[in-house]
Design brief:
Layout: H1 20-26, H2 29-32, H3 36-52, H4 58-76, H5 90-102, H6 115-151, E1 156-161, E2 164-170, H7 171-196, E3 198-199, H8 215-222, E4 226-227, H9 231-236, H10 239-265, E5 273-274, H11 293-316, H12 331-354, E6 356-357, H13 359-364, H14 373-381, H15 387-404, H16 413-417, H17 425-430, H18 433-439, H19 448-466
Parallel strand pairs: 3-4
Antiparallel strand pairs: 1-2, 5-6
Helix pairs in contact: 3-4, 3-6, 3-8, 4-5, 6-7, 6-12, 6-19, 7-10, 7-19, 10-11, 10-12, 11-12, 14-15
């Protein structure tokens, strides 16, 4: 059996009850109940506007607002639970609860609005809060990276390209690379916030309303800086969610790259770091195992966020204007992305904050790896060789070392001079990893002085963002 027709907000036109399976299929209450606070706050502002514009009487307005505030209080205190099956969606649930409290006057709340502009409002209010929360979590992660960079300033490690030893640099320089990656992510979040911060309420179903409403009043009550310009666009628009999902996908990609490096660095082969026990698990069969599960799952859940973006892009790609029930499918990808993103940011911040760094192993890994070969080539260029000539000559020196089982930094001056007469005692010094690092004093380089300046700049960025 279906439910009674008149229990539905739209039931007046129908002669038959809705099919039970259909009822369950179209219901969104199981997930859009997350929006209850925003639906109630938006409804309070809407009722206040209706009263201000004399569309409803002051008495009706007061009764509606008081009823909504009571429901909000009960929800926040956990005195009332939203149970799947009680209503078709969160909007219906709120109106039903309001009717239980104040009677038939509850029906006047829906004057001059539709569920179409109502859900767009709820989602925007929700997402505004979550973007700010995400920015705070990003700042926490940046603080952890900055703190670790300061704590381990001066530690040398191999830099990689193609996962092969390339050139030595400071571990702090590597950490600060992620600091600035996440600063870009934060900037994208700040920028998209402006496009979320647009009030759609007042657009009604798609054409606006014939009632003399005051949208500016509602915007001021709900803290929106802008009002949607076109009623049709306002109820059809999910760009603000897509932009958030896109930004989140890029952010998760950055977290995944860092997670991958934590997995590699904590392996026995690298042994550069040890992750805190509280972010690892063991094996059910191998007693010795300590697995970097948090880092692995962050890496793994990145695909989930990518999928949520493609999910909604695919849903929206062929929808005619204005609202279509397909758009109900925007919520679960959004909610899942926010949950995944916020937990990933929190865990990554704590992993960086608590990891132990193996200074000796990092620095030992730069010995005998030929990673100062570029310094030798640069030295020859300064002696008037072309870089191609210098590159070829140093390549032959590396072949000599491999053939004779020698390290580059262990070559004698006479051995070097056998390749080119320009080599002198200073050449022996530049082959040391520390000297190679200090030579990289260009802006943004890895010299100790440049990294220290980068850290100081990062401190100012975080202070500015906090203020």
């Amino acid at each position: 059996m279906g439910v009674k027709i008149m229990e539905k907000l739209w039931g007046g036109r129908f002669k038959k009850n809705i099919n039970k399976e259909m009822e369950e299929f179209i219901s969104s209450l199981s997930f859009d109940k997350k929006l209850v606070k925003y639906d109630l706050l938006g409804s309070i502002a809407h009722a206040q506007m209706l009263g201000k514009c004399k569309i409803i009487t002051k008495e009706e307005k007061d009764k509606i607002v008081e009823g909504l505030k009571q429901i909000l209080k009960e929800v926040q205190e956990g005195k009332v639970k939203i149970i799947t099956g009680e209503a078709e969606d969160i909007h219906s649930w709120v109106e039903n609860k309001l009717k239980e409290k104040i009677g038939i006057v509850a029906g006047k709340l829906h004057i001059a609005r539709s569920r179409n502009d109502q859900i767009a409002l709820d989602e925007r209010m929700y997402l505004k809060e979550e973007v700010l929360k995400t920015q705070d979590l990003l700042k926490d992660l940046q603080k952890s990276l900055l703190s670790s960079a300061q704590k381990h300033l001066g530690i040398i490690m191999p830099g990689y390209t193609h996962l092969q030893h390339a050139q030595p640099f400071l571990f702090s320089h590597h950490l600060m690379a992620y600091f600035y990656m996440f600063e870009r992510d934060k900037g994208r979040m700040q920028d998209l916030y402006k496009r979320i911060d647009v009030l759609p309420l007042g657009s009604a179903a798609l054409t606006g309303t014939s009632f003399p409403i005051d949208r500016e009043f509602v915007a001021s009550q709900l803290g929106f800086k802008q009002i949607s310009e076109n009623s049709l666009d306002a109820v059809s628009d999910r760009d603000f969610i897509l932009e958030f999902l896109s930004t989140s996908a890029i952010l998760m990609m950055h977290l995944s790259r860092l997670g991958e490096e934590l997995v590699l660095w904590s392996s026995q082969e690298f042994n550069f770091i040890e992750l805190d026990d509280s972010f690892c698990t063991g094996s059910s069969i191998m007693p010795q195992k300590k697995n970097p599960d948090a880092a692995e799952l962050i890496r793994g859940k990145t695909g989930r966020v990518y999928g949520n973006l493609i999910n909604l892009l695919t849903t929206m790609k062929a929808l005619p204007l204005a609202y279509n029930h397909d758009m109900q499918e925007d919520k679960e990808p959004l909610f899942d992305t926010i949950s995944t993103l916020e937990r990933s940011l929190f865990l990554m911040s704590k992993m960086i904050e608590t990891m132990q760094v193996n200074k000796e192993k990092m620095e030992r890994s730069t010995k005998g790896d030929f990673s100062t070969a570029t310094e030798l080539a640069d030295y020859l260029v300064k002696k008037d060789l072309s870089f191609r000539e210098a590159h070829k000559l140093v390549g032959s020196i590396v072949i000599y070392c491999l053939k004779n089982k020698r390290n580059l930094e262990d070559l004698t001056l006479s051995e070097l001079k056998s390749f080119h007469k320009s080599f002198n005692k200073k050449t022996l010094e530049i082959l040391k990893p520390q000297s190679a690092i200090e030579a990289k004093d260009s802006f943004g380089g890895t010299s100790l002085k440049r990294v220290e300046k980068s850290i100081q700049k990062a401190k100012k960025i975080l202070k500015k963002n906090t203020n």
